[in-house]
Amino acid sequence: MIIGVPKEIKPDEHRIAMTPAGVRELVTRNHEVLVESGAGAGSSINDDALMAAGAEIVPMARDVFDRSEMVVKVKEPQPDEVDMLRPEQVLFTYLHLAAYPKMGRALVTSGATAIAYETVQLPSGSLPLLAPMSEIAGRMAAQVGAHHLERPHGGRGVLLGGVPGVAPARVTVLGAGRAGTNAAMIAAGMGAEVIVLDLNVERLRQMDELSWGHIVTVRSSVLTVEEYVSSSDLVIGAVLIPGAKAPVVVPEELIEAMRPRSVVVDISIDQGGCIATAHETTHADPTYVVHDVVHYAVGNIPGAVPNTSTYALTNATMPYVVDLADGVGHAVERHPELLPGINVAGGHVTNANIGEVLGLPTADPLEVI
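Below the sequence we write its predicted structure tokens.
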């Protein structure tokens, strides 16, 4: 198979979907890898390193899309990229169609088979291809929250960890999944007072054991969200329903009730956001203020650390890429968790959650791949 890796064109996105190690794995299995020139520069992976591993460097994205049978990316395709897809192609990337329904409908029209990293789901319910980026996004959420709490960056002028004789910042994390857990652990490591809310008590139990009781765990409800969000210096939203739009758990009136110049970080923004006043921002212009509360809602948080993110992501994706290169049917047989990852195929929506968001009927992926 010919596998193509274009340069990411979403603003401030510097990750690449394949490392030299990934190229070598595919080439040694007699596949061909095309990489757009400069695709790895933002991740400190140069063309020479990819060529040495066996990739063919091509000058333009059009060359990648025209010649490839499978296109491997990091972020959701932009309109120009969707226009280049063909019905016989496979697209393997993050899609987040719940947040980008217009792009979802365009993918249906393309006829291509689009497999989303974020909805590949193991029987345990875990999301193996979302996990590494959730870990990074969670850890960065605590960092950027601390940064924007500084007065020169719009915040209340509160040090996250406090100092002797002065209380630390209060940080409330909404969601005890992978992103929320990492956000909570980093914030606690920086010395903050950390409260984690989740509906799942078993997750809270795991958090309590992991933190040796140093993080306060509270079962989420309307009342507890109101209580802790309104009294926090930093709120981190990390709510996820795989493939579906994130539920709004912080209404606008609660943002209005927060302390002046407090900070909210909505990690869930790439699934629509869990904070009512959040809208997607970029690394170039990451924050805005609503009701005197600083909002950080960058849609590709791990893109700020592309070298780390690229290697973490490809560690997880490459086993699937290797098997997909031998055919989607073959890969699904070896990895049944890929089946919910198939969001669109043959002009049909093939994931029930995505179908609900797009208002389109859902087909059985096994019947259309």
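The first helix runs from residue 20 to 27.
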